Amino acid sequence: MNADDASRITQIALMAAMADGQISAEEQRELASVANRLGVPAATTAIDQPVAARQGIGILAASLSDAEARRTAYEVALAVCTVDGAPNPAEQAFLSALHGALGLAPAATHEFEDQLRALSAAPLGASLPAPGAVSDDASLDQRILQQAMLTGALELLPDRLANLAILPLQLRLVYEVGQRYGQQLDANQVKDLAGTFGLGAAAQMVEGLVRKVLGGVASNLLGGLLGGATGLAAGTAVTFAATYALGHVAKQYYAQGRKLSAEDLRSLFGRFQDEAKSLLPQVQGQIQSLAQQVRLPDVLAQIRSGKF
To answer: Residue 136 and which of 29, 53, 86, 291 are 20 to 30 A apart at CA?
Structure first.
């Protein structure tokens, strides 16, 4: 993996978004997140689109440096095509062509596709507290912290699919916070709020690639959130901080009747990320302990059933 791989994967993600002739707002956010996390210029404007088209799938696929980069390129493309709903026929045709150009065996991607479809369809509203149940502010803060530690613990698991469970857990946390403030939400409203901060399926996959390939350098590339914590992967720090900040921003947002602007939300998100950075050294032992206890199949099963 090198800087060229990062650029090529970003271009493949752009081609995936362009597959059906238009780039949705959700795909636009995913592309920006992909580019940002890989440290390359955002390939999301009309000026950049001809560049990707001239490269062609075959050329880009053949130029990736190793099998891990090729598989990740496909996973990121699939995530981009799925972020605004199930892939349409044009997107399915693109993914099929990309799969062939990358030379991937069917078994290498079927599990990922199945898990992504299942998690995309996971219910948000089952088994959550009744609307208007904000009787204890401290208990809600504790719930946010627990979910932040859980998503951080998933980053320590060896299973490459662990990243897939993070975004659904983050979305369900936002949904739960909204319900506790009596807000009647649908999945799109929750995803829009998360999208304001660049959180999405493609972003999760790209963060995983960056951590695997760059190792310790990833802590700087992904925001330097390790702070005083030791023995934790950079991805754990980033995910813990993102989930913690997302939960607390949602709490402020719904407590104020959803009247905060996107600029206000992003400012709050940065403030709570800094708060999480200071808190992380105090809870890193709990995160590591949780990682030894949690089993990814159990987490995925509970997300799909709506019981987590």
So the answer is: 291
Contact partners, residue 24, CB within 8 Å, separation at least 6:
17, 83, 84
pLDDT-based confidence at residue 87 (cuts at 50, 70, 90)? confident
Together in a domain, 166 and 300: yes
10 close to 68: Cβ distance less than 8 angstroms: no
CA pseudo-torsion sign 97, 102, 105, 109:
negative
Domain count, the chain: 2
pLDDT in tens, 238-275: 889 989 999 999 999 988 888 888 888 889 998 999 99
293 and 260 together in one domain: yes
Among 223, 77, 233, 242, residue whose Cα is nearest residue 166: 242
CA distance 98 to 74: 7
Helices 187-196, 262-293: axis angle to 10 degrees equals: 100
**Is this model's pTM higher than 0.70 or not?**
no
Alpha carbon 111 to its chain centroid, in Å, reads 18
Give residue 229's pLDDT band: very low, low, confident or very high (50, 70, 90).
very low
My answer on whether 146 and 193 are in the same domain is yes
> Are 92 and 162 members of one domain?
no
Given 77, 96, 119, the domain boundary residue is 119
> What is the identity of the amino acid at 80?
V
pLDDT band at 42 (very low <50, low <70, confident <90, very high): low
Write the CB contacts of 54 (distance below 8 Å, at least 6 apart in sequence). none
**Which 3 state secondary structure label does DSSP give 301?**
helix
- Buried/exposed 174-201: b ≥16 CB within 10 Å, e otherwise: bbbbbbbbebebeeeebbebbbbbbbbb
